[in-house]
Structure formats: structure tokens, C-alpha cells
């Protein structure tokens, strides 16, 4: 993985087609809100399916807390759309079926040389795409729990929301 993807660095403003084929830029998807950015192998991986079930349970909280969720794989848009619908996800899935970013980001899973999927990673980002945390999901237990994501987003929100203390006090 590239050293440019460490906490404190700005994540590249990737642009890829979404699950319906529309080109989407990460900064536009962030829309001035914190982001959980997940790179996953593909719909077929049981580890990914288990992790997605966790994220689906978190999505309602994320929506009311102004947190954006974005998932990226090498699956084509129509496969992502079917997987997204099947698990009940409402957030944006991006397709790097052309593998235009996987090498640039240094996120190629080296164990699967036939399919060259993404190395599972989860990033929590500030609205300006600065990396807050980077979770290595190669092994299932390296992925963040929902409680870890909640804590990351509490920390990010407190740091970037001028109205975190509604009475004007400092946090």
C-alpha cells in the first residue's frame, strides 16, 4: 500500500462510474461531510458479505449523522447494483472494473493474481478527504467494527463541525 494513504494525508479525488454507470467524483460524494470509504474484493467474498451486513446496520445512523458511505470494487456497475440491492445498501458503490485506480492507489490484493481484486481497506475521511484512519481488512478482524467507525466519526465531526457545541463553547 502506498505511503500516501496514511492518516493525515489527503486521499486522491478518484472518479469512477457508480452502480448505475454515472461518473462520480469522491469529493462530490463527500459533499462537505465525513466519509467511510471501503475498498472490497467483490460481491463473491464471504468476508466482504459479512462486513457489508455490519455496514448496512450502520447506514441509518450514518444518514442522520451526515456521514457519507462509499464502496469501491472491480465489479462492473450492474453487478454492484445487484449486490447493493440484495443487501439493502443505500449508499454509492463505485466500479473500477477497468482497474484505473487500483494500481495508482497501491491496493491490489497480491494473493489473487487471476482476478486482481482490491485489497480490502476501509478509510475514514474528513470532508476535505484527509485520511483520519486506515483499516487493513485483508484478515476479517482488521476491519473496523461499527463502534470504531462511530468513534472515528465522533472525532472527525467534533473537529470539523463549527457548531459541535451549539452554545458556542469550545469542545
Question: How would you describe this structure to a colleague?
Answer:
There is one protein chain. This protein is an alpha/beta fold and 171 residues long. 32% of the residues lie in helices and 19% in strands. It has helices spanning 26-30, 46-64, 77-87, 102-105, 146-160, and strands spanning 15-17, 23-25, 35-39, 68-73, 92-95, 121-125, 131-136. Strands 5-4-3-6-7 form a 5-stranded mixed sheet. A two-stranded antiparallel ribbon has the order 1-2. The model has no long low-confidence stretch (mean pLDDT 93).
Provide the helix percentage: 25-40%
Regarding CATH, which class? Answer: Alpha Beta
CATH architecture annotation: 3-Layer(aba) Sandwich
Tell me the strand order in the biggest sheet: 5-4-3-6-7
Biggest pleated sheet = 5 strands, mixed
Mean pLDDT: 93
Q: Please indicate the count of domains.
A: 1
Roughly what fraction of the amino acids lie in strands?
15-25%
At CATH level 3, the topology is Glutaredoxin
